[in-house]
Structure formats: structure tokens, C-alpha cells
Amino acid sequence: MTGRIESYRNESYWETLQYDAAANLLDRRCGEEESNQNLIRFNQQLSFRGLKYSYDEHGRTRSKQTASGTQYYHYDAEHYLIELCIEELERSHR
Fold it and tell me: What are the extents of the domains in the chain?
């Protein structure tokens, strides 16, 4: 027994972690199974009422996907939002 979490699964999410001999994280695989339920992982809303969210390594919102399109968020080095790109199914604008 290593004392590390190597896998996790619930009804709508799974994750597998692999480590080297020095306990450094080598690989992380995760996935989301489709469901109508809201999903929050690591204090981040991943899906809610048909909306899907993704986050960057700093925990900032990277994208928000809706039925009509996707919004992409871009930040500067000080974590301020500097650009919001909206791609609608029919067109895209900034």
C-alpha cells in the first residue's frame, strides 16, 4: 500500500493517477460520463443545466459551452480577464 489515491470513480466522473517511485505524479486521466446532474469537481463547476465549463491550471474559467455556442476567456499574467471570445453556432465575434 502506497498511501496515495490511484483512482476515483462515482456515478458521473472517473479519474486515474499514476506515480513514479519518488511519488511524483506522472499521468492523470479523467473523464466525465454524460448525465443530467450538476457536476462539481475540485470546487469547480463542470456542468450545470446543460452548460459545460473548463478551467486552466490556475483555476480560472477557460471556456463555457452553451447550446448556442462557446465563450472563451483569456487572461493576462496578473490573472485579469483581458478578452472574451464568443463563438456562436452561426458566427463568431469578440
Answer: 1-35, 37-94
